Amino acid sequence: MEDNSTNIIDRLKASTVFKVVSGYAIIAFITVQVASLVSSSFGFDEEFMQNIIIVFLVILPFIALIAWAASSKYGTFKILGISLFLLFTGYGTGSYIWVNNFMLPQVQEYLLEDDNVSAWMTSNRINSIAPFFSTISKDDDDISAVANIRVQQDGVNISWKAYGASKKWNYLGKSPLEPVRLPRGILQFKLEKEGLESVYFSSNNPSIKLDNFEIDMFWDLDPINMQGEGTSPEGMVYIQGGNFIPAITGGGTDPVYLNPFYIDKYEVTNKEYKEFMDSGGYTNSQYWVDMDFISDGISLTEKEAKKLMVDSTGITGPAGWEVGMYMQGSENKPVTGISWYEGLAYARYKGNILPPMYHWVKAAFAPEEIIAPIAPKLLTSSNFSQEEIKDIGQGEGAYGTFDMAGNAREWVWNIFGGRGLTLGGAYDEPTYLASQTAPLPRMDRSLKNGFRTVRLINPRDLNPFGDPIETQAPKDLSFYKPMSDEVFKVYSRNFDVSSSKVSSELLFQDDSHPIWIKERIQIEVGYDNEKMDVLVFRPKNNYGPSAPVVVHPGANYYTTPPEIDDINPGEFSLDFLIKSGRTLVWPAWKGSLNRMPKARTASNDELMRYFRNLYIAWVNDTDKVLDYLETRDEIDSNNIFYLGMSYGALFNTHTLLFENRYKGAILYVGGVFPTYPPLVDGINHMPRIKTPFLMLNGEQDYLVPKASASFFYQSTGTPEEDKKLIFYDSGHWPLPRNQMIKESLDFIDKYTD
């Protein structure tokens, strides 16, 4: 028995398999021990160590199998067969794990983020490496659509990439190009051919799925006509003509046809404007002919007008310059502090004109803007930093222009009510002003006013697009009737808020700012298992409880919001409230900030449900915020005020109707605005609002016309002595800061116990 055991052990020791396996086991053991010793130094966690052991155990039988084959007859063939088996098995197993555990979840994550380009590229990679194990294809309609890219010239090289991406271009082929499948989303295209000017443009796949129907998924772009090399004036971009819908306030909803034109790639810089001045731009009368100079409603001569066109030292030049010179290091910043007249004179010096409003909009936004806007991505890459004007080159538009959103707001050709129009918004304004027309006195020389120029291929193309813009006809609001008591009784049940103890948590507190203490609070709202973050800015060095002002901001916080921790009370000049000893309360209202929906279908039924639920949620959110404020000893909960701005001033009626703890409401650029669905439209119950309020509006506000603000004022049930409406000589935003501050503080003081 002992001899047999010894023989078995001896044979085992002599076996090649035993030697290989033993050696492998020793190496594996040493490797694991060394890894465990250095794990803390290199950050190897317990899971990593477990994976090492699993890998060694999985490889062990294959090592033994190969050793057996090598030591036996026909070993070479056996090894070859085993290797092929292992190769296919390993490929199949690895591919399955790689596709299902790593790549497909990544594709799904991209789709949830509406990043169809990355989803498409990833699915391409899957199908090229492991097509048998993929459950998703680059040809899936959820990811891609067929695009027909046509060029009037043959032999043009066509490439594409994701909008705003720095990645290399993906080559498609030469024109004429057969329809190709491309990912959904905003793409940039490059067209190149020797002897022709290269063309860059962005386009968005207009295919869109709705709840109850689908728009045609075929992506058919208008044929592109390339220009001969050297055709475009220096520094300008060729804009192909065609039909488009002006995606701005005042632009209308009917398609507009424009002939091709050229527009400056960048805003005019300080350096370029200095060249105009040095060449006698202010003294050459041919640049200033046929201008009806007006300042403060008074007609001026050319000589009188130019006396107003001086810098901070009284020397001719833009308002922000000194001694006729721009600040050092700002040569590539857009020139600002100029009037409409100065912009037009410079344009004439270049042989151009100021952009007609429609031409500016055509160049700023993608042709499919009305269907699937490029704006959200354009706005996030533009200079709306709330800090300062930056060098040109921020935010690339649909046709290769820059800075058409943010940075400097830009004068356009058209006149509105004797005023000039600006477009694009300025660096310190809310992003939604990028698509708002802002009327200003033509002699306005704000340090936010810049411009660029346009060259029409045929000067007659100015007609009728250079005509003055007509004042919007006020909406007919006469059909709105107050709800009866019976209907309102049933209606109001939708807004019942269940009473419950406030559940809150302090997430962080920051007292590094010299003026305020910043807190981020999280409150349970009592529906859908949601929590609401609330920013609280308490004044420092304030003795006794401070009155809180609850803010409901503008539409940009529902479309392209900042990170909640980046909210700055100075953004809308609201820091004056904290400086005056009040506490500023900024909730993340349902639908805004970090509570934005990831996706929302555009069917009418879905929109109606969404807005109905949004209004109900706001009433509930308000109740929970005010309940929380009542728990704070540092806050005077007997004197709570509401401050609505634009969006928050237009859709506030439910808040004021169903919450009686507000001592008063301040409404910046508010009014009435018919909404989805009509059943919950606040206009129907405005006579029941009794809250004292102050309304501050702009005479030239395109978004909220004067008639809209007046209708709100007249329709509320608030006693006449408790409501006030003031119109300033301004557009939608900003309002005159000093007057805004004075009126707001006077109102708060008046209604504070």
Number of structural units classed as domains: 4
Q: Which sequence of strands runs across the widest sheet?
A: 19-20-21-23-22-24-25-26-27
Task: Just name the CATH architecture of the largest domain.
Answer: 3-Layer(aba) Sandwich
Give the % helix: 25-40%
Q: Main beta sheet, described?
A: 9 strands, mixed
What structural category characterises the helix and strand content? alpha/beta
Q: What best-fitting shape do the alpha-carbon axes yield?
A: globular
Rg of Cα set: 33 Å
CATH topology of the largest domain: Rossmann fold
Q: Output mean pLDDT.
A: 82
Quaternary structure: single chain
CATH C-level category of the largest domain = Alpha Beta
Q: Separation of termini?
A: 105 Å
Low-confidence stretches: 206-219, 368-373
- Relevant CATH superfamily of the largest domain: Alpha/Beta hydrolase fold, catalytic domain
Note the total helix count: 18
> Beta-strand percentage?
15-25%
Describe the fold and architecture.
By secondary structure, the protein is of the alpha/beta class. It has four domains: 2-105; 147-231, Sandwich (Immunoglobulin-like); 262-462, paralog of FGE (formylglycine-generating enzyme); 485-750, Alpha/Beta hydrolase fold, catalytic domain (Rossmann fold, 3-Layer(aba) Sandwich). Helices cover 31% and strands 18% of the residues. The protein contains 18 helices and 27 strands. The strands form seven sheets. It has a nine-stranded mixed beta sheet, with helices on both faces. α2 runs antiparallel to α3 (46-71), α3 runs antiparallel to α4 and α4 (75-112) runs antiparallel to α5. The longest helix is centred in the N-terminal third of the chain and has 38 residues, at 75-112. It is globular and about 120 Å long. Mean pLDDT is 82; it is low at 206-219 and 368-373.
